[in-house]
Design a protein that fits this description.
The chain crosses the membrane at residues 91-113. The chain is an alpha+beta fold and 259 residues long. It contains five helices and eight strands. It has an eight-stranded antiparallel sheet with strand order 1-2-3-4-8-7-6-5.
């Protein structure tokens, strides 16, 4: 904006003759602000305004920082929820199958190892009759098979055995029975080890074993069973090559002495 014009002197361009140069210098300046007396203005400052040149308009409040927008949610993939449910069902199914397999393995191990049925521990008791044979009054230690079968039990390595023995006889049979209760960690391994020191043959028969052993020049059969808590051996005091009949007798005799 241009500066305001200086008002003309009241004397015009030709002052009176009586005014000297000194008088003119001493004469007060005309009324009204002069350019020299005006307060200095800041650079870039416009009258009635601020440095921005916007005049007397009220400064507008500063704009607020823009609020960041949250990312838009992703649209679910087709079949995503169904896929998650299928995965969860698979996990549950695999866990269930794994549990059933573990139970089946334990049950199968118990059966194959000749374990008990989960009930009370079995007790071995000599009965007046067992397997269709009657108890013989003869001393068990005096029977032919006694030293061979007691050696077999010792080789088995049963822990803390509580053992009993008896001789049973019939019309064409005379057998030694030795059995008892013990802590047997692995019944199959026990039977594999528990062989007479003169064993000639050995085979697994059902949950037990059968074999033959030599008494001098004669062959005698024997059969045995074992569980985690009991065992029993039946050996013939009479020579025989075949173990089939003795195996059947052992099954019947076990049912009577193991309670």
């Amino acid at each position: 904006m241009p500066d305001s014009p200086v008002p003309p002197s009241r004397w015009g361009d030709s002052p009176p003759w009586w005014l000297t140069a000194d008088t003119l210098d001493a004469e007060p300046p005309p009324s009204g602000p002069s350019r020299e007396d005006a307060p200095p203005r800041a650079a870039g400052h416009a009258p009635g305004g601020d440095a921005s040149g916007r005049g007397d308009r009220a400064s507008a409040p500063a704009d607020r920082a823009p609020t960041p927008l949250a990312p838009a949610p992703r649209a679910p993939r087709p079949g995503g929820a169904a896929s998650t449910r299928r995965s969860q069902r698979k996990i549950v199914l695999v866990s269930a199958v794994g549990g059933l397999c573990a139970i089946a393995a334990v049950a199968a191990g118990t059966f194959l190892m000749g374990g008990g049925d989960g009930g009370p521990a079995k007790q071995i008791t000599v009965q007046p009759e067992a397997g269709g044979l009657r108890l013989n009054a003869a001393e068990p230690a005096a029977s032919v098979a006694f030293p061979f079968i007691t050696e077999a039990v010792r080789r088995g390595g049963a822990s803390r055995p509580h053992q009993t023995s008896a001789v049973y006889s019939g019309a064409a049979s005379n057998v030694l029975f030795i059995g008892g209760t013990a802590s047997i960690t692995d019944p199959i391994a026990f039977l594999d080890r528990a062989r007479p020191n003169t064993a000639l043959s050995f085979q697994h028969v059902g949950p037990g074993v059968c074999g033959t052993f030599a008494v001098l020049s004669e062959v005698h059969p024997y059969c045995a069973w074992a569980t985690s808590g009991s065992y029993g051996f039946v050996a013939s005091n009479l020579p025989a090559q075949d173990t089939t009949d003795l195996a059947k007798l052992t099954t019947r005799l076990r049912g009577d002495v193991e309670r």
